[in-house]
DNA sequence: TACCAATAGTTGGTGTACAAACCATTGGCC
DNA sequence: GGCCAATGGTTTGTACACCAACTATTGGTA
């Protein structure tokens, strides 16, 4: 390996970007039949875990800008997976809830993680270790 | 930790996406004085390592779509860091070369990696280990 | 109670990111 | 030499992603 500190192959951030894009690319064909993109899938995961959620709360959970979530949520509403209603207790806030269809999708989604792990073909322990490292980095970067 | 296979905090891909975005966010204020975004910085790294490069070659090196690179390269040309000229040997191909200004920028860029490592505050060995894991994942996903 | 800073979402602008359609050049091959 | 599939880039359309500016509601406080 090169000793140049600016060598492309030495940059952790480059590896991080490429890895993220590559893994998202594995999800793409798996999510396509469900009509979801990867960020949309993450929103659904959050809502399957806890509902209703506000845009603010989603933004914290997914570490995404509200300005990114706003149109994304409208698209999920348009395809019928969720509802966006004002919270009666605080009219500023949105109460985002799953529709029947959105609830039902969870059964399909259960197939996704094993399919991804199979495609990657890496030992679970490696993935676990990676997850731990990534969590460290996220904590350090925030 | 939850035993739900769809729990957000268990998804490696979620951690990967958030980590990538978080680390890019660390670069942002460092690159801003140079007038570069993170992907543009990666292109510059590639060119500092080897020049001239074609769009095709850059696309392989950075694992980015030519359709993504095309406008990005025009922006880098517009701010004067590189030149896009047809390769006389093959008029289909672009020969992308650095300008004086682009060459000179390398000296500034040398400050970036240590600054990022400092901001992260993680031991180098951890980053090295992470890099190894990521390289594995990239290989597995391709 | 009337103001006003804080909070929740939305919108608009710039820059990726990818897929598909497109255009020009090239290199075989009859 | 002339056709034609392959190759290299560009363009278009959709969807993030972030920032800054904006609107509407809320809650404290003079």
TrEMBL record, chains A, B:
Limits of the HTH marR-type domain: 9-139
Pfam families named in the record: Staph_reg_Sar_Rot
Question: Where's it mainly located?
Answer: cytoplasm
Keywords assigned by UniProt, alphabetized: Cytoplasm, DNA-binding, Transcription, Transcription regulation
Q: Where in the cell is it found?
A: Cytoplasm
Q: What is this protein called?
A: MarR family transcriptional regulator
Name its species.
Actinoplanes palleronii
